[in-house]
Design goal:
The complex is a heterodimer of chains A (322) and B (323).
Chain A lengths: L3 E14 L2 E14 L3 E5 L6 H9 L6 E10 L2 E2 L5 H7 L4 E4 L3 H4 L6 H12 L4 H14 L5 H4 L9 H13 L5 E5 L7 H18 L2 E6 L2 H7 L2 E6 L2 E7 H6 L4 H9 L38 H5 L5 E4 L2 E3 L7
Chain B lengths: L3 E13 L11 E13 L3 E5 L6 H8 L7 E6 L2 E2 L5 H10 E4 L13 H11 L5 H14 L16 H13 L5 E5 L7 H18 L2 E5 L3 H7 L2 E6 L2 E7 L10 H8 L38 H5 L5 E4 L2 E3 L9
Parallel strand pairs in B: 3-8, 3-9, 6-7, 7-8
Antiparallel strand pairs in B: 1-2, 1-4, 4-5, 9-10, 10-12, 11-12
Classes of the chains: A alpha/beta (322), B alpha/beta (323).
């Protein structure tokens, strides 16, 4: 593996409801190397977006980091002051969201929104910022950028808006780009364009990427390594081909089996019994024990630790021999 | 195969736009632009396409929530537009719809039991006791027990709400159901439960579905035949799951090639550009500005949907010689 750029160690994030703390993320430990693309996959409420918000220092008011460490280039982010954060956020770490329409300012021309990032973080003049923005817009595959610069978000299609978001995120040449479901709101042909663009930008600029998605197919297209999350825990981590072709955790295997597709026509789809436990109803033991087809007594009693199941393959399961 | 249940002929929906100036000519959005297809009894007909292609408008015209501007819809051989009010009411029993968002399609102030009983009251079916029985039996069929009758929508998870949405469509024992993106908002593990349920109900009750979705993996899994829409027109209809009879239209091919595959990282032919504005669709074949195989004729002449094999129709000039 290359040098680690981002390091998360034993992170715990809890929501305070009433007088009680409910941990929504537990024992999060992973690294992202320079230029690497790491995926996080999981269903609603598993904590994948919360993970990215903790890295951005944008946790909602009711949530707080109760334990652990996040380091960027060796510097701790958890102990940073609000002012230090804003120097990192938008410059070293940037983010693109699922819905570009709500993430862009509807009252400001799109080109200006990109230029503003450069103005804020790079210490350039207005004229230079405009030129940088125009160059960046061309780089993300937008055409007639001179005219487009003055257009407002509502005049653009969803695919174009997502390109604007990517231009905004990359203009300061960040070390890490967090992409949270960046293609979920787009049509498949536009999704293919955006995934190609993200892959190209990753190769040409060397920006590392944390790619969050619920779509395992999309994860396979863009990621080097992938982390599967369930109910606030990482349950499996491996290089993308290894994980999708040889899943070791029963949850990962169940997810893959329940995907519909032409190859499963005429057959009943596999289903994972039960549902994800709500935040307030999480018990001791393995988070997946209640739904696991092969759970034993130890699964209900003890949270399993992440253990090695192969070279670069980690699994949180009692039933996998270390 | 079975007899025809539903036929659509030249179905069109144009939405007029407000005039921009006094002398401007009136503009219309061609949401659906003269489509024709048939659905056989017991069949699952998938309808796919990207946002704004007109697939949902088509579904809404089939249940007559939206009235067509032109064209005709035949149900069991009878034209729907000429029906008397009482026949129309009977037809509304036979044709039902399940929507994408179970959160907004259930009344938050009413119990599930109330929501499911209302259609029975409207259609004057049974007395109070019999209606309760029908409701609890329907709930059971969608995998929920009778205790759900007294619950409110906010007490249910997304998957449970979608089960209630399906129960609401089933309670009048329809013959035909339009399923509009009904599994799109659900997580994978819940989605597979709902797909299994829909398939099981279809087989048990001999139902016919129009299955609308943007998710091609889902449509390929569940459908017998697939119709592909682009800018208000059907560009291809083909039988699903027949390997040597795969799609031919350049748009269908690009669409299916763009779907990421969990089993392998694939190189796909990426379609350039965006879908054009449906107010002023390009002349000739509407797909020609994005088509990788465009010819001169495509810019001037609108291709017609033609039969190219059994159960396979394509609207593309490339395949015009095959007549």
């Amino acid at each position: 593996m290359t040098n680690s750029l981002l390091e998360m160690r034993d992170l715990e994030v809890a929501f305070t409801l009433g007088k009680q703390d409910y941990p929504a993320l537990q024992q999060m430990t992973f690294q992202i190397g320079e230029k690497e693309t790491v995926g996080i996959v999981g269903e609603s409420g598993c904590g994948k977006s919360l993970t990215s918000l903790s890295i951005m220092g944008l946790l909602p008011g009711t949530a707080k980091i109760t334990k652990g460490e996040i380091r960027l280039d060796g510097k701790s982010l958890v102990t940073s002051s609000a002012q230090q954060w804003s120097g990192v956020r938008g410059k070293d770490i940037t983010m693109i969201f699922q819905d570009p329409m709500t993430a862009l300012n509807p009252l400001m021309p799109v080109g200006k929104q990109i230029a503003e990032m450069a103005l804020l973080h790079l210490g350039v003049s207005r004229k230079e910022a405009r030129q940088l923005a125009l160059d960046m817009m061309a780089k993300v595959g937008l055409s007639r950028v001179d005219r487009l610069y003055g257009d407002y978000p509502h005049q653009l299609s969803g695919g174009m808006m997502q390109r604007i978001m990517i231009a905004m995120a990359l203009i300061c040449q960040p070390k890490l780009l967090i992409a949270d479901e960046p293609t979920t709101a787009l049509d498949v042909t536009i999704q293919a364009q955006i995934l190609n663009l993200l892959r190209d930008m990753n190769h040409s600029t060397g920006t590392a990427m944390l790619f969050i998605s619920h779509d395992l197919g999309v994860i396979r297209e863009v990621c080097d390594r992938v982390i599967v999350m369930y109910a606030g825990y990482m349950v499996e981590e491996a290089p993308v081909e290894e994980l999708l072709d040889h899943p070791r955790h029963p949850y990962t295997a169940g997810l893959l089996q329940s995907l519909p597709g032409a190859d499963k026509r005429g057959r009943i789809l596999y289903t994972i019994p039960g549902r994800v436990p709500p935040l307030t109803g999480r018990r001791t033991g393995c988070p997946f024990a209640g739904r696991c087809p092969s759970a034993t007594a130890i699964c209900a009693a003890e949270v399993p630790q992440m253990k090695k199941a192969g070279e670069q393959h980690l699994v949180r399961c009692h039933l996998v021999a270390g | 195969m079975n007899r025809e249940l539903l036929k659509v002929s030249g179905l069109t929906k144009h939405y007029p736009l407000p005039r921009q100036g006094l002398m401007e000519k009136k503009q219309v959005v061609r949401a659906v632009d003269g489509i024709s297809f048939r659905i056989r009894e017991g069949e699952i007909f998938g309808l796919v396409g990207e946002s704004g292609c007109g697939k949902s408008t088509t579904g809404q015209m089939l249940v007559q929530l939206v009235k067509q501007t032109e064209g005709e819809l035949y149900f069991q051989g009878e034209p729907v537009s000429g029906l008397s009010e009482s026949r129309m009411k009977a037809l509304r029993r036979d044709i039902q719809i399940v929507f994408q968002d179970p959160y907004s399609s259930l009344n938050p102030k009413k119990t599930i039991g109330w929501t499911l009983e209302e259609p029975l009251i409207i259609h004057r079916i049974g007395d109070k006791l019999q209606r309760r029985k029908i409701v609890s039996e329907t709930l059971e069929q969608v995998g929920l027990d009778a205790s759900y009758m007294d619950r409110y929508p906010h007490e249910l998870s997304g998957g449970q709400k979608q089960r209630v949405g399906i129960a609401a469509a089933l309670v009048l024992e329809p013959k035909f159901i339009v399923i509009d993106e009904a599994v799109s908002a659900l997580d994978v593990s819940v989605q597979s439960q709902i797909l299994n349920l829909l398939k099981e109900l279809q087989e048990k009750r001999g139902l016919t579905y129009l299955f609308i979705s943007h998710d091609l993996n889902v449509v390929e899994y569940i459908s017998d035949r697939i119709g592909v829409m682009y800018l208000g027109k059907i560009v291809e209809i083909f039988e699903a799951g027949v390997a040597d009879k795969g799609p031919l239209h350049p748009y269908t091919r690009a669409l299916f090639s763009a779907v990421p595959d969990v089993h392998k990282r694939k190189e796909h032919a990426v379609l350039q550009g965006d879908v054009p504005n449906p107010i002023e669709p390009p002349g000739g074949c509407a797909f020609h500005p994005r088509c990788p195989a465009v010819m001169d004729i495509c810019r001037s002449e609108v291709p017609q949907l033609r039969k190219v094999g059994s159960g396979h129709e394509v609207s593309c000039h490339i395949y015009a010689e095959g007549e």
